[in-house]
Amino acid sequence: MNERGLTLIEVMIAAALVLGVVIAASDGVGTFTAATAQGARRELAERRVSDQIESLRALAFCDPSRPLDEAADVVSAVFPHADAARNTDQARFVPAPADGRPAGTFVTTVADADGVTTIAATFVAATASGWVPVVPGAPGAYDAGRSAPLPSAALAVAVSYTCERGRHSAHAERDVILASPAGPLCGLQAPPLEGT
Asked: How do the domains of the chain map onto residue ranges?
């Protein structure tokens, strides 16, 4: 062995060790970057769901004085009609149970630059065992432009958002009950509990 310098084998071993450290570090950075991006997508999805729910909560449940062509209350915003013949890709009434949702659900979808918001709304009534779906009596006759009489004074609303940035996606979903305040509104009282 040459005492005054490194041999070729020693240099190759040192280079292999340095290369291994660089590769391990770059994998860690890549994993960290991917996790950060996924967290940002998930945060965006959660924020969009929360914002949508808050905007719905800010509306009156039913406002019979609104112009007929505006979605200025909760009912007209999430349940514009109950007629499957008027369905579009963005707004559809589902008269029979489907996709884990009860009969009488109205589903709207809105795409933006980052993903898709889906809102599924079903009229519901309170019972001693919880909320139960209330299907509009004559679904084809119901229209938010003629919002009275409503089938119920409460809506079960599921809001979801799927963020589709990049190659991966993130999903968030929340359910909320939006109900008319006590007192007559669009010809209804808030639904009483059965058996009380």
From this structure: 8-179
